[in-house]
Amino acid sequence: MSAIDLRLLRYFIAVAEEGHLTKAAQRIGIQQPPLSQQIRALETELGVTLFKRLPRGMELTESGQALLADARTILAQVDSTVAGVRRIARGELGRIAVGFTESASLHPFVPTVIRAFRDAAPDVALTVEESSTTDLVQLMSRNRIDVAFIRSPVGDVSDITIETMMVEEMIVALPAGHPLVRNKRRKSVPLAALAEEVFVLNRRPSGPGLYDTIIAACRAAGFSPHVEQEARKNLSTLSLVAAGLGISIIPASMRHVELESVNYLSIDDAPGLAAPLHLAYRDSGQSGAVKRFIVEARKCAKASRGAGRPPGK
Questions:
Q1: 168-179 as b/e, with b when 16 or more CB fall inside 10 Å?
Q2: 90: helix, coil or strand?
Q3: What topology is assigned to 6-89 in CATH?
Q4: pLDDT tens figures, 162-184
Q5: CB-based contacts of 2-8 (< 8 A; 24+ apart in sequence)
C-alpha cells in the first residue's frame, strides 16, 4: 500500500465530524461530488469501508471509528511539526551561540541587544562565549559560535561579515593622584601630553585591533608609548593602573568601571583613536535565529544613534 495522502485524512475527519457530505464539503471549501470521490478513494486505498451511507448522512463503521482517532493524532503531529519548522525558519525556535570580547561585554550595547533578542525570541536556546577577537573569529569559522561582538578584527575573515554597530571614543585611565588629574576641572588631555608616561595595555593577542590602534595613534602624535606592563584582560589593566603602575588607554564605555583609585579623562587631538564595536557573523548558512539576532542588533544600533547618546555613555 502506498503512503496515504494527508489531504484524504483531512477530508475523512471533516466528514466524520459533520456526519454529512454536504456540510463537510462546505466546511472544507470543495464541491460535494469531488469530496465523495475522495472518500471512496481513501476506502479503496485502505481496502475497508469507513462510512455507512444513510439516507440523511454518513455514519462511521467500526473501521472508520478506529481510523478517526489515529487520523487526528497523525494530523496534529504533522501540524505541530510544520509549525515548529516554520518557527525555526522565523528565528522563534532553535539555538544560537553568541561570542563577545571582554571590552565589548562592558559596553551597554551588548546586553541591550541580548535582552532585545531574548524578548523577541524567548524560546531560542542561547549560549555565550567570552574570548579574544582572534579566538572568536576562529570559533566562528569552525561553526562553534554563530555571531560575535568584537573590536577590530585581524587575520583571515574572508568568509565572515564584519558589520559596524557603533564607534566609541577612547579615553585615558590614570591612577589617583596623577599630576594630570590634580586639577579637578580638567576633563581632557592631548594625546601628546602622555609621551613620557609609562603605559599599561591589554596584551595584543587578546585585542590586536585596539592595541594596534593605540600604538598607531601615539606614533601619529609624535611618540612611541613606553609599554611597561601588559595584562590579559581590560579589568586587570585597570587594576594595574589603580596600583600606580602606569596609565592606560581604554574604550570610553569602560568609564562605567568605577575604581576608587582610577580617574578618567577624554583625549584631545587624536584622530583615528577610536574603538569600533562590530557584529561578526558568517556570510552563509545563517539559521533563522541568527538572522533574527542580526535584525535585533541593527534595531538597537539604530535606536542608540537616534537617541543621540554619546559613544560609550
A1: bbbbbbbbeebe
A2: coil
A3: Arc Repressor Mutant, subunit A (1.10.10)
A4: 999 999 999 999 999 899 988 88
A5: 2/45, 4/42, 4/45, 4/46, 6/74, 6/75, 6/78, 7/38, 8/38, 8/39, 8/41, 8/42, 8/45
- pLDDT tens per residue, range 242-285: 999 999 999 999 888 888 899 999 999 888 899 999 999 998 88
Show Cβ contacts of residue 40 under 8 Å, excluding neighbours closer than 6 positions. none
CATH number of 166-274: 3.40.190.10
For the chain, the first-to-last Cα distance in angstroms comes to: 69
Q: What is the pTM of this model?
A: 0.73
Beta carbons within 8 Å of 35's beta carbon, 6+ residues apart = 11, 15, 21, 24, 25, 28
CA distance 126 to 100: 13
